[in-house]
Amino acid sequence: MSRYDIVYIGTAIIDSIIMGFDPEPVSAAGFRAESGSLNIGGEAVNGSIAASKLGMKTAVLCSLGNDAAGDLIESELIKHGVDTSCIIRSDEHQTPITTIFVSEDGNRRSITNTAHRYNFHPERYLEKILDAKAVVLGSLFRAPFNDPEVIRAVAGAAHSEGMMVFADTKLPNFRKLSLDDIADSLPLIDYITPNEDEGRYCSGKDDPEEMADAFLDRGARNVIIKLGSRGCFFKNRETSIRLPAYEIEAVDATGAGDNFLAGFAAELIRGSSIREALEFANACGAICSTAVGSGTALQNREQVQEFIAR
After folding, report:
1. pLDDT tens series, the chain, 310 aa
2. Which side of the chain, N or C, has fewer Cβ within a 10 Å radius?
3. Which fold has domain 4-22+31-309?
């Protein structure tokens, strides 16, 4: 028996979410918005909480500063049943804070700072992650997975232990990497899940199937292109699947991709087919987008099943 179903590795941040931001100033230094809120975030945090809500035994390996932001993140993880014993707390680096401006249609833009540049080394703590059925690397091209050697070390160790390896992606920020830079790690990853913008960056293509082919040509096993309001596209060397999105009134897409991947991984661990897992994942992403914050709307697996049934 594995200690965990899924271990998440990646960033942990505070999201300061500004809804309904009006770019027209009301004074020399003043702006207005509909609302503002603080939410814990980062791929590892968002995904681990979602997976825990879906009934998975979940842990997270990330780095937090010994500061109020780090305390808030750890307490919220514990509140949602995520094992925090793998977290690295440090006086050396602050917990990153991201400011996110959300438009009326749910799309968003964000501001990062130098605290996001810190690249902790999960490959130094492999003993913390190997007692699990699956590991999620979130996200490639961003710290700590903006170093090809770190990606290879973590994915290789998990792969050699027979764990399922999932990897999300992000557009690079502080360190520029290409798909070719990580090509030797792609065969070690079972499922990779870029969104449409990330797929376009990696492949130079606009068509989702051509995006997926760029990953497959470099050794990827299974590719999911997340298409937002248009659903998702899956491809491996044997088959392809295109699924539409569920119709919802989007409020905030923050964390929708992380909820999508959590749902997909959880259902595969339960023994579902790829198509079933994709349908469930689509529903998780849709539910997440109906409220402000990545961890607000999704409650449990039964909620997702009822959503699909409706």
Report:
1. 789 999 999 989 998 889 888 888 899 889 888 899 888 988 999 999 999 999 999 999 999 999 999 999 999 999 999 999 999 999 988 999 989 887 776 667 888 877 777 778 999 999 999 999 999 998 999 989 999 999 999 999 999 999 999 999 999 988 889 999 999 999 999 999 999 999 999 999 999 999 999 999 999 999 999 999 999 999 999 999 999 999 999 888 888 999 999 999 999 999 999 999 999 999 999 999 999 878 899 999 999 999 999 9
2. N
3. UDP-N-acetylmuramoyl-L-alanine:D-glutamate ligase (3.40.1190)
